[in-house]
Design brief:
By secondary structure, the protein is α/β, with parallel strands linked by helices. 29% of the residues lie in helices and 16% in strands. Strand 12, helix 11 and strand 13 (320-322) form a beta-alpha-beta unit. Helix 8 runs parallel beside helix 10 (277-288) and helix 15 runs antiparallel to helix 16 (447-457). Bound molecules: alpha-D-glucopyranose. Alpha-D-glucopyranose (GLC) is lined by residues 102, 105, 142, 206, 242-243, 299, 373-374.
């Protein structure tokens, strides 16, 4: 049994050092220790900086034809829900033709819609209907890899001398016939798959059904640019760039130091953010984005705070990047779901402080997200187990919608969805969940421990069908849903929550309204206050006309704070209904407008 020792890991030293450096830099520049930025007038902001974004997991949002799978017409029918939430950009998870080995992140044809989701006419209608409501569609571009059923790959694997033979990453076996390196794919198992016809292995950062494209080849770079331009010309508002940090591979393929009992080393440590990657991305930016108002957001796992200035801002390659610091706060090793890191509220606060510091210094901008389709539900992820679910959801909503940056709401987050806790691994659908479970058993964890990891981290939690009403299958489908509807749907659904004035949904709607009325919540500077407090997240948002102070209690107990912070200020929002200066009820969130300490 080769079990790794459990240890109480804290936030890595590298991050602590970089925060310390940032504080020093700000101190030298005459700023206070807390993080403060100059505000930018709303007039100077781009449309995507002022709006709220919303992620739709297409398969689970709304089924219009009874096949149990969400589709584009289903989305079109629910655009008013998004409008009410103040949403101006909707990120769709991939809905292109795909064999669905990874629910669409394995694309067989970038130029067509998967029949399970509809047709290109449905897509055109969705884009147009969304536009009527001032909402722009954001496409998910998966360019690190394709499906193994993509024509490009079929041609590439047909022999060593076809026109696309070099479009993917092919390598000869080692002398003993084994894989070229000991790299473990992100979803588990070797990152190399043998192909009989070519007598070679191909690389797959994720599943064997997701072969990696070879970005060294200029024809590949031109082909993906054509795809992006095709969608840009359709009138979409932006692109989310999937797994983009893996597109550049090292010049030489070498074994890495084994990091687990399987003798392998995670591919992330060997290929993420390889030097030279930015050249490709600059090329992409100039040939796709120039002269248009679309935005790009890169999925940037592996980009450290120190690198951000090269990725976003005036000299960067994207408008925003999804950085993983916050969502990995409790996960020191993404391969191993059984080792959770303990964290304090000051750790959570430091991620915002640090990221914003760097983003703003570089003239960049941040997407604020607490959930996405790969992450646990935020109530389970960031809140203690005890306490009222609705109060916790409202506290998190306040953080999401008042923080500086573009908020990204994950479908269901606005209704207070929580993690699924199905009893057996066989109940889970997500391939990565199953692989993480197997990995844990291989490392010597018990089934119970492995399931604990699954309950906390499984990607199925954020993918259960959207709950529209209290009818059968939560109004998601008239057929059999592809993934079970969460059993709490009779209470937590859009219709019931809409009718309940105190619901999580109505709180989101109120916050979105507040955000548009109080512009400092969009364009104002951000200054952290009470940085040492382990119970309360607190900050000031301020522009030249107004100032808002946000205080959020992250505990299940009443807490107090210095009333000086809200002296002469008026409460404009309390998640509790009523509030008293200097005190916060369990999980209460408040926003004060006016003078502050
Ligand atoms: C990204 C996606 C994830 C997908 C993976 C492979 O991380 O968010 O859902 O499985 O890339 O494309």
């Amino acid at each position: 049994m080769n079990r790794r020792k459990k240890k109480e890991e804290r936030i890595p030293m590298k991050r602590i050092i970089s925060i310390a450096l940032l504080i020093c830099v700000f101190f030298i520049n005459g700023c206070s220790v807390s993080v403060k930025f100059d505000d930018k007038d709303a007039a100077d902001q781009e449309w995507w900086q002022q709006t709220i974004a919303y992620e739709i997991y297409v398969k689970s949002f709304k089924d219009s034809d009874g096949d149990g799978t969400g589709d584009l017409n289903g989305i079109t029918s629910e655009l008013d829900h998004l409008k009410e939430l103040g949403v101006g950009a909707v990120w769709l998870t991939p809905c292109y033709v795909s064999p669905q080995a990874d629910n669409g992140y394995d694309i067989a044809d970038y130029y067509n819609i998967d029949p399970a989701y509809g047709t290109m006419e449905d897509m055109d209608r969705l884009i147009a209907e969304a536009k009527k409501r001032d909402i722009r569609i954001v496409m998910d571009l998966v360019f690190n890899h394709t499906s193994n059923e993509n024509e490009w790959f079929k041609e590439s694997r047909s022999g060593r001398d076809n026109e696309k033979s070099d479009w993917y990453i092919w390598a000869d076996p080692k002398e003993d016939g084994s894989e070229p390196t000991n790299w473990r794919s992100i979803f588990g198992g070797s990152a190399w798959e043998y192909d009989e016809t070519r007598g070679q292995y191909y690389l797959h950062t994720f599943l064997p059904e997701q072969p990696d494209l070879n970005w060294e080849n200029p024809e590949v770079r031109a082909a993906v640019r054509d795809v992006a331009n095709f969608w840009k010309d359709k009138g979409v508002g932006g692109f989310r760039m999937d797994a983009i940090t893996y597109i550049k591979k090292p010049a030489e393929y070498k074994d890495g130091k084994p990091d687990a009992a399987d003798g392998m080393t995670g591919i992330h440590s060997m290929t993420a953010n390889t030097p030279g990657i930015l050249d490709y991305l600059h090329e992409f930016k100039s040939s796709v984005q120039e002269g248009s108002d679309i935005f790009t957001v890169g999925e940037a796992n592996g980009v450290e705070a120190d690198d951000l200035k090269d990725w976003i801002g005036e000299n960067g390659v994207f408008d925003m990047v999804f950085e993983f610091g916050l969502v990995n706060i409790d996960l020191p090793d993404e391969t191993n779901w059984c080792e959770r890191r303990k964290w304090d509220l000051t750790d959570l606060k430091s991620f915002f402080a640090e990221s914003f510091c760097v983003a703003d210094t570089a003239g960049g901008w941040f997407p604020v997200f607490l959930e996405n389709h790969d992450q646990p539900r935020s109530i389970n992820h960031f809140m203690p187990e005890s306490g009222d679910r609705e109060a916790k959801a409202k506290a998190l909503a306040t953080l999401l919608l008042t923080m500086r940056g573009t908020p990204f709401i994950m479908q269901g987050e606005e209704l207070g969805f929580v993690n699924v806790d199905w009893p057996s691994i066989d109940d889970y659908e997500d391939i990565s969940t199953k692989n993480h479970y197997e990995f844990a058993l291989g490392e010597g964890y018990s089934e119970e421990e492995a399931m604990e990891g699954v309950h906390h981290f499984s990607r199925d939690s954020s993918r259960t069908p959207m709950q529209w009403d209290a009818s059968e299958n939560a109004g998601f489908t008239s057929g059999t849903p592809w993934l079970p509807v969460y059993p709490d749907y009779k209470t937590f659904n859009k219709k019931s929550e809409k009718e309940d004035a105190d619901s999580i949904l109505n709180y989101y709607i109120a916050l979105a309204g507040l955000r548009s009325e109080h512009r400092e919540l969009k364009d104002g500077s951000y200054e952290e206050i009470m940085p040492e407090d382990e119970n309360i997240v607190a900050f000031i948002r301020q522009n030249k006309d107004s100032k808002a102070t946000v205080l959020i209690n992250f505990t299940d107990e009443e807490v107090t704070y210095d009333t000086e912070y809200v002296k002469d200020a008026d409460c404009i929002m309390s998640s509790n209904g009523e509030t008293q200066k200097g005190k916060l009820a369990p999980f209460e969130a408040v926003i004060y407008e006016g003078s502050t300490k």
